[in-house]
Amino acid sequence: MISPDLRYGRILQVAMPLVLGGIGQTVINATDTAFLGHMPNPEVAIGASAIGGLFYVTFFMLALGFAIGLQIVVARLDGEGKKLGIGPVIDHGVYFLAALAVLLFLILKIFGAILVGWFVQSEAIRQATVEFLSTRSYGIFFGLGALVFRAFFTGIGDTKIVTYTTLISAVGNIVLNYVFVFGHGVEPMGIAGSGLASTISEAGATVFAFAYTRRRVVRSDYALFAWPKPSRGVFREIFQVAVPLMFQVYISLWSWFIFFLIVEKMGQRPLAISNLVRNVYMVLMIPLMGFSNATNTLVSNLLGQGRGKEVPALVLRLCVLSLAFSGALVLLNLLSPQFLLSIFTQDASLMAETVGCIWVISGSLLLFSIVYILLSAVSGSGKTGASLAIESITLVFYLFASWYMAVYRHASIEWVWSVEYVYFLIMGILCWWYLQYKVLNKA
């Protein structure tokens, strides 16, 4: 007899709001591009927004790694029935993220222009990027605040709030872009208006999350927001799980950067093709990232209940769902690959040359949909040092294979993107071995 919390319906109840949240974030990014594309100098505006957004995300990802660790600790405590231990963990998460938000904000404000100048050659794009960050940088406080609520609710398996906050952000971003970018009712702000729209919509979502928590959660059940005196023991418990994830998120992010530096050596055309492939990749990854996040919570919770022997059944169901959703999305894209590509470019010849790579990554995405669940099961078990090691080892092989194909062999761009199979096969083998012999045998 399958336990109710291992059935597909329960898994979907946790995972689907996270998948919808990923869709909402894609809508937000597309909205920014759409509005800025109608400015007098759209190439500069869109380029600066992309660079500024990536610059902002680079800082934000550090906090995201910590929040995932916080979520895993909360899920474990919830599974153990130690609900009164959850509040102090969340409160200590607030202490750390508040300090981190101040630090990141000051870096963005004081050194942002200097750092952008190191990477951007075009004076017009550099100035526009700094202008975008002048308003977007304030969002770091609200973005990190939202991570606290996300860690709490996702940790206890109540992920509906992710749908609500994403909807607020998406609608708010559309309306405020219309108001601020072109000046409907206010002075037109251009690209700075786009940054301000994102910041205010993010603030609205965070305020909603706070109000939702006050209304829907009996805080005394979790000792939530009691603001205890900072404890080294609680910080140690969180950091043991969170710090490896912070490093893992960062090395994964930088591996993309290094990969594109390798591709850049092949010429402008392969680089342009790869940028399109990356954009399509990010859309097709939405379902598996939602199921990956759900895996962290569900595995940690199950182990907290002392039900380690049921983890394989849970992971198998998560893999089936992730593969089914990703497979359906991949199939739809392969029926008309030009549809997604046309969102990012109108260059017919560039789209035609990119289709080959789309076919290549379609197969790797099916592997990705399974392997990333396995990696999340490793981190969800609390063994985040192991997940960091697995990611690091895999990336060494991945980047060497990319260099070998692109620079040493001068292979076509399709062959360079086929290195994705190397990445996921190695990661999958390492994850399977670790789960089999280091986690499940000791559960």
How is this fold's topology laid out?
Layout: H1 8-36, H2 42-79, H3 86-119, H4 123-136, H5 139-155, H6 160-182, H7 191-216, H8 219-222, H9 232-264, H10 268-284, H11 286-304, H12 311-335, H13 337-344, H14 348-380, H15 384-408, H16 413-417, H17 419-439
Helix pairs in contact: 1-6, 1-11, 2-3, 2-4, 2-5, 2-9, 2-11, 3-4, 3-5, 4-7, 5-7, 6-7, 9-15, 10-14, 11-12, 11-14, 12-13, 12-14, 13-14, 14-15, 14-17, 15-17
Unreliable spans are: none
Strand content: under 5%
Helicity, in percent? Answer: over 70%
Q: What is the overall silhouette?
A: globular
Order of helices and strands: HHHHHHHHHHHHHHHHH
Query: How many beta strands in the DSSP annotation?
Result: 0
Cα(first) to Cα(last) distance is: 20 Å
Largest sheet: number of strands, sense, barrel closure: none
Question: Which radius of gyration do the C-alpha atoms yield?
Answer: 22 Å
Q: Helical region count? A: 17
Tell me the number of structural domains. 2
Mean pLDDT comes to 88
Structural class: mainly alpha
Description:
The chain has 443 residues and is an all-alpha fold. The protein folds into 2 domains: 1-230, no CATH class; 244-443, no CATH class. The chain has helices spanning 8-36, 42-79, 86-119, 123-136, 139-155, 160-182, 191-216, 219-222, 232-264, 268-284, 286-304, 311-335, 337-344, 348-380, 384-408, 413-417, 419-439. The protein is globular. The two termini are 20 Å apart. 48% of the residues are buried.
Which short descriptors sum up this protein?
mainly alpha
